[in-house]
Write a structure and sequence with these properties.
Layout lengths: L2 H4 L2 H22 L6 H10 L2 H9 L7 E7 L6 E2 L7 H5 L7 E7 L1
Antiparallel strand pairs: 1-2, 1-3
Helix pairs in contact: 2-3, 2-4, 3-4
Length: 106
């Protein structure tokens, strides 16, 4: 009796995709740490995602800084100060509200 006769090939494919999905999820967690996503994905695929998760949680977190910027949709200039309206467009007589967005730096 052959192995594939008793165990359907569909289950192997489903298990393979599940393994890849879990390894990719662990790699995404690793990208938020100093170890990085590529190295975590490699460890998760070669060993197990559980080992990759262990590797991620024993790595220190990245030092991230969240900076607030304001962009004018009219002229495209960015400002770090919180103005209600764009100072550049205000000189030209227009009152354009600035759009707030965040930038992360490592």
């Amino acid at each position: 009796m052959d192995f594939f006769d008793s165990f359907d090939i569909d289950y192997i494919v489903i298990l393979g995709f599940t393994y890849l999905f879990v390894a990719a999820t662990v790699a995404k967690l690793g990208s938020l740490r100093e170890v990085g996503g590529k190295k975590t994905l490699m460890y998760s695929l070669l060993f197990t995602p559980a080992y990759g998760l262990y590797y991620v949680f024993h790595s220190p977190a990245k030092d991230t800084l969240k900076i607030v910027h304001y962009r004018c949709p009219e002229c495209g200039l960015e400002h770090t100060d919180g103005h209600a309206h764009c100072p550049n467009c205000k000189k030209g007589g227009k009152r354009v509200r600035l759009k707030k967005f965040y930038m992360r730096t490592y």
